[in-house]
Design brief:
Arc Repressor Mutant, subunit A, 7-stranded parallel β-sheet, 28 helices, about 45% helix, EC 5.6.2.4, metal-binding
Length: about 625
């Protein structure tokens, strides 16, 4: 089952179909053109071909099923994992004049009646359902009487046992699809390696579908990773570069979400905690505030984020190591979905690595799953300690090995030096062996630096030949060396034995045979403060006018009870502030302004422009 990155586009469709697609794209969604991934996916969907599409977050996956639903009529059933995502997509579609609805546990009686009536009368174009509700007997009876033209499965990596967010209820979708008569199906995800793609295809389809892999690069995201020094202070400094912007800070514990949010709220940040231990109503209130307002920062566990469709998230930070490269990619992908510049920062330390390894070892997963999870953790550690462009390393993990240096990660921007670290590795390994492989990293660093601590003297380690041989390097530098030795398999530590370090499987060749080791020196970070946060707005944008446009958007959104971006995304407001359209005709040419939104909101925003020139 080969992966496909075919250049096939909607130009290969009959002219009348392509014309209808482009007309709806402009009039309903306000877009002038399709992106390459959308072109390739739509060419297949409009031919009723089954498709598994792997497209980067922000690539516009939803257009691949929403546009056919508008053009072809009939019913498109969308399987989505979160009520909040269903609600927001339905609100955006209805604002654009498309008959859409969802049936879920949060639907009030009036909404349920509206959706059922539209479904019975054949007016409903898109119906959003959770995988659990889709498989229910009542729902199946409704759908069997409806004209289901397309089944769209969002977050399709949840189908696979190899996916980073496997959900058992997704595994029943193949059987549900068969009960519906096998309608044409598009499964979409931003995160799926080859093993995951093959598993998704086997779970959902009776025969191999087309597979479209459009790449994993998100060039608008600035990537950065830093060793932990003072995590709270590091997060505070990062947020200071993004005042007034919306963002997410992922934490590794519920307690950390609460402590950091309280601390930052005390410093004037609109900060809120979010984790699974909160009451449902409290979680929903936090999520609603984040979606509806600008400048909200969420400190969250991984319970927050899947299905969050807020396009103007300007940064994502990790206060600790993510679970895997896939999880990291998925989580940073929640920033910059509008295509505008966004920032990321990930902090990591030895304790994070040790925790993740223990979680894998102590899990009840089969040994094969543990083996794969250990490999994925090793890949993540290698990404953290990468000696070259971080984007190259990340894309290589997903099989894209021909990427050039990106110029938009910490290692490209700040520079990175590598050195022949063979002697340093040998010094560290000698310290580990001469102390009987019984001591933790900090004690070994004290030994190497020649610091006569009480513990060093008690064990007589100040008499060892290794005492002081690494005095030319700081503690911070030695910690970085130890992390890299761990990432390279040269040395490791035993969590069950107080973190005692041992010589790793690759260590003997370094110590005995002098096998060369290249190590990375920490980036200089000279340019970090000069760069500030995310890149400046495009030339010609009046920031005061943009602020007034955002105020108007927020007022409309609150009145209508929808997230602010449902009215217009940031990209649209930025173009309005730059181009200053003088009338409806000019406003209609702005990205994201379809005919329905022009009719609904045009005068309000033109009024803001006139106020600024009056």
């Amino acid at each position: 089952m080969p992966d496909e990155t075919s250049a096939e586009t909607t130009a290969d469709l009959p002219e009348e179909i392509r014309a209808a697609l482009m007309r709806a794209l402009r009039e309903v969604f306000g877009y002038d053109s399709l992106r390459p991934g959308q072109e390739a996916a739509l060419a297949r969907v409009m031919r009723d071909q089954n498709l598994l599409a792997v497209m980067p977050t922000g690539a516009g996956k939803s257009i691949c099923y929403q546009l056919p639903a508008v053009v072809r009529g009939g019913l498109t059933v969308v399987v989505s994992p979160l009520i909040a995502l269903m609600r927001d997509q339905v609100a955006a579609l209805r604002a654009a004049g498309v008959e859409a609805g969802s049936l879920n546990s949060a639907s009030d009686p009036a909404e349920r009646e509206r959706v059922l009536a539209a479904l019975a009368e054949g007016r409903l174009r898109l119906l959003y359902l959770s995988p659990e509700r889709l498989g229910g007997a009542e729902t199946m009876r409704l759908l069997e009487r409806s004209d289901v033209r397309l089944l769209a499965i969002d977050e399709a990596h949840c189908v696979s046992q190899w996916g980073h967010d496997f959900r058992p209820e997704y595994t029943r979708l193949g059987a549900v699809r068969a009960r519906l008569g096998g309608p044409p199906t598009i499964a979409l995800t931003a995160t799926a390696d080859r093993a995951t793609r093959e598993d998704i295809a086997a779970q959902l389809f009776e025969s191999p579908p087309d597979i479209l892999v459009m790449g994993f690069d998100r060039p608008n995201l600035r990537l950065a990773m830093r060793p932990k020094a003072n995590p709270r202070r590091q997060i505070e400094q990062f947020l200071a570069l993004h005042r007034g912007a919306s963002g997410i800070v992922y934490c590794n514990s519920r307690r950390q979400t609460e402590e950091l949010s309280v601390d930052l709220a005390g410093r004037g940040v609109d900060a809120h905690a979010y984790h699974a231990g909160m009451e449902k109503e409290a979680r929903e209130a936090v999520q609603d505030r984040f979606l509806a307002s600008d400048g909200v920062v969420i400190f969250a566990t991984v319970a927050f984020g899947m299905g969050i469709d807020k396009p103007d998230v300007r940064f994502v930070a990790h206060a600790g190591l993510p679970k895997s490269v896939e999880a990291y990619y998925q989580e940073i992908g929640r920033a910059g979905r509008d295509g505008l510049p966004a920032d990321t920062l990930t902090l990591y330390g030895i304790d994070d690595i040790r925790l993740r390894r223990r979680q894998i070892d102590e899990s009840e997963a089969p040994e094969e799953r543990k083996r794969v999870d250990r490999q994925r953790l090793n890949a993540l550690v290698a990404l953290c300690e990468a000696p070259r462009c971080r984007r190259q390393t990340l894309l290589a993990y997903f099989g894209e090995t021909d990427a050039a240096p990106c110029g938009n990660c910490d290692l490209c921007l700040d520079g990175v030096e590598t050195m022949d670290g063979t002697i340093e590795a040998q010094k560290a390994l000698s310290a580990i062996l001469r102390t009987g492989e019984r001591f933790g990293m900090e004690h070994l660093i004290d030994l190497l630096r020649g610091e006569a601590t009480e513990k060093i003297e008690r064990f007589g380690h100040d008499k060892l030949p290794t005492f002081g041989v690494g005095a030319d390097r700081t503690k911070v530098q030695w910690r970085g060396i130890f992390r890299q030795l761990y990432a390279l398999g040269i040395a490791g530590f035993e969590p069950a034995d107080h973190g005692a370090w041992r010589v790793g499987p690759n260590g003997r060749a370094v110590l005995k045979d002098g096998e060369a080791v290249r190590l990375r020196l920490e980036p200089t970070r000279r340019s970090e403060r000069a760069r500030g946060g995310t890149r400046d707005l495009p030339e010609g944008v009046d920031t005061d006018l943009l602020a007034r446009l955002k105020e108007k958007r927020l007022a409309i959104a609150r009145h209508e009870g929808v997230p602010a971006y449902v009215v217009f995304p940031d990209r649209t407001l930025i173009e309005i502030a730059a181009d200053r359209p003088a009338d409806r005709a000019a406003l209609a040419r702005v990205h994201g302004v379809g005919s329905r939104k022009l009719e609904r909101y045009g005068d309000a925003f033109l009024g803001v422009l006139r106020e600024g020139t009056g």
